[in-house]
Amino acid sequence: MHQRGGLLEVFVAGHWRQEVAGVGQTIAADRAQVGQAQRVALARALAVDPGLLLLDEPLAALDAHTRLEIRAALRRHLAGFAGAAVLVTHDPLDAMVLADRIVVIEGGRLVQEGTPADVARRPRTGYVARLVGLNLYRGRAAGGTVVIGGGAGTLDTVDSPDGEVFIAFAPSSVALYRTRPDGSPRNLWRARVAAVERQGDRVRVQLSGPPFDAVADVTPAAVAELRLAEGSTVWAAVKATETHVYPA
User: Fold this and answer.
1) Are 103 and 87 contacting, i.e. CB atoms less than 8 angstroms apart?
2) I want to staple 186 with a disulfide (CB 3.0 to 4.6 A). Which of 78, 150, 208, 240 is the partner?
3) CA 115, CA 139: separation in Å to the nearest integer?
4) What pLDDT, in 10s, does the model give residues 74-129?
5) Domain range spanning residue 184?
6) Is residue 232 in some structural domain?
7) What is the number of domains present in the chain?
8) Do 181 and 174 meet the contact criterion of CB atoms below 8 Å apart?
């Protein structure tokens, strides 16, 4: 048995591990130890070409750079994998990149399933909307206007079906102004800035209502120009053409 374990290590080294052995070589040893163990575990699981592969948070222990490369290598392997693979993850990017079908569990209940494209475009709970990065509201539509649940406010849209609907829009679709803008934006409301957080080359701004909460993504230059800070008040606008409405 011990010898078979040794043979397995040799087989792994000559099989899938060649995809991952070089990843993260420049990482300091004290940071790489956990990541290296994760890479070896992945390689050992994939090397035997199982009929069923369970990947439970396979990239969780890796740093951001190593995760990017291992995710790409894993995607290449799964593309040619003949068996069934089940991925368990809290990272929406892992799910979107590695899966061809997604099942979302929230509070122990199945709340949505579908292809990555379907889930990303039509989230059905606030939790799923946060995972895929959308503002989401539920309401009742009539004549192109959606009354948000509880009468919190209204949002105008284009070609909306009547009845109970979800309405979604991306944070990048939200324009912020210090004073009321000229013209007549279809969707315009005042909001309080609840939080400002830098995310890469963009800044995420949490807006609180009434009429409703929302998230906006703006540039660092816009943050400075608008003097955005927690507690400040802004005008928020979303074009009707930037909204997406679908049956609830």
Assistant:
1) no
2) 240
3) 25
4) 898 888 888 899 999 999 999 999 999 999 999 899 999 999 999 999 999 999 99
5) 171-239
6) yes
7) 2
8) no
